[in-house]
Amino acid sequence: MAAQRKTSRYVVPIAVAGIAAATIGLVPALAASGDPDLPEITAQQLIEKIAASDTQTLSGTFKISTDLGLPAFDGLLGGLAGGGSGEGSADPSAQLTKLVSGTHTLKIAADGPERQKLTLLDGKERYSLVHNGDEVWAYDSASNQVFHEKGAGEAGRAPEKELPASPKALADEVLKAAGDTTSITVGGTANVAGRDAYRLVIAPKQQGSTVEAVTIAVDAATGTPLKFTLDSTSGGKPVVDAGFTKVDFARPAASEFDFAVPKGAEVTEGDQLEKDHAGKAPEDLEKALGDFGLGGAGQNGPEVVGEGWTAIATFDTGEAAPKTEDAPKEARGFLDALGDEVSGKFGSGTVFKTKIVNALMTDDGKVYVGAVTPQALVDAANAAK
């Protein structure tokens, strides 16, 4: 139990690697000139075009590159969280964490809400995830493992939400909620996967945010987003650069979503996996977050200081911050590379850094986290004294 508690205390600094938070508002602007040559469009009109998009079918190749400015941490989250599926498993919750670092190529196909397929192409190995009706199949070629879950069509369905009656009404609501913290422009045009697109550029007006801009390439004909880029004020490669390299909006063949268990593959049922991990990863992670003052029964949510892009969440863990030398050995190098010691009126602590999200953990157990600069976190901690 003591070992589990020690490990759980490192979930927040490690989890900083996977969090990005910012409030996005919108301000209309005219499109700039660009290539290809498309009719001018206002930001509001482009938002309406996105909202009106009804793309149900497509297939193509998708490339995603992620650079959080972190040392390598493949497998680290699963190990610290208390025995997740890890390597050699077809469980999607284990496999898709690979996308949070490096560059990956995926093949994607969709035929409405009932049929989708994603194949992760990394070297010679393949990982496929297929949703067909009420079944989900996943296959990891490296381990020859299969994951199967039935009833996913209903259980995985998102709850119905009441939306504005028209795309224009939705755009009006978004613009109304913008406030003075954000600008949006139509930043010219682009060609993505051989298709003409407008570039919707969203950026903070506030000083102190780590976000330089979010750019969304929107298909001029269908209103479908084709590419997403998140840039940091620290410069260098984008934090996230994800988009289609090939895309076709025709309906994929029905056979695309068929799945047959490969010869000799071991099949794990989703309900069995849940039983096997009962009392392990999910509960351990919940407890770990509770140890840091996040979530859990009887826990108060974090207090939010500031607004918009420079909002900072703060909470009190109730105990002294962990020390790197006490961390599990597999995490020490990661923590050393991630953290810088800081001090101020608040006392002393460590800032855990990424290119987007930073977190300050003070030596007396308080945590400040946001998509803001380390100095903004120190200023917030000082102001709380």
List the defining traits of the structure above.
385 residues, alpha+beta, outer membrane lipoprotein receptor (LolB), chain A, TATA-Binding Protein, 2 domains, 12-stranded mixed beta sheet, globular
What is the secondary structure topology, with strand pairs?
Layout lengths: L1 H7 L2 H5 L27 H10 L4 E10 L9 H6 L10 H4 L6 E10 L3 E8 L2 E8 L2 E6 L4 E6 L1 H4 L11 H10 L5 E11 L2 E10 L6 E9 L5 E8 L7 E9 L17 E4 H7 L4 H11 L11 E3 L6 E5 L12 H10 E6 L2 E6 L5 E5 L3 E5 L3 H10 L2
Parallel strand pairs: 6-12
Antiparallel strand pairs: 1-2, 1-11, 2-3, 3-4, 4-5, 5-6, 7-8, 8-9, 9-10, 10-11, 13-14, 14-18, 15-16, 16-17, 17-18
Strand fraction band? 25-35%
Specify the overall morphology.
globular
Q: Largest beta sheet: what is the strand line-up?
A: 7-8-9-10-11-1-2-3-4-5-6-12
Q: End-to-end distance, in Å?
A: 34 Å
Unreliable stretches (pLDDT < 50, length at least 5) are 1-34, 73-86, 154-161, 279-299
Number of helices: 11
Name of the CATH architecture of the largest domain: Clam
Assigned CATH class of the largest domain: Mainly Beta
The CATH homologous superfamily of the largest domain is named: Lipoprotein localisation LolA/LolB/LppX
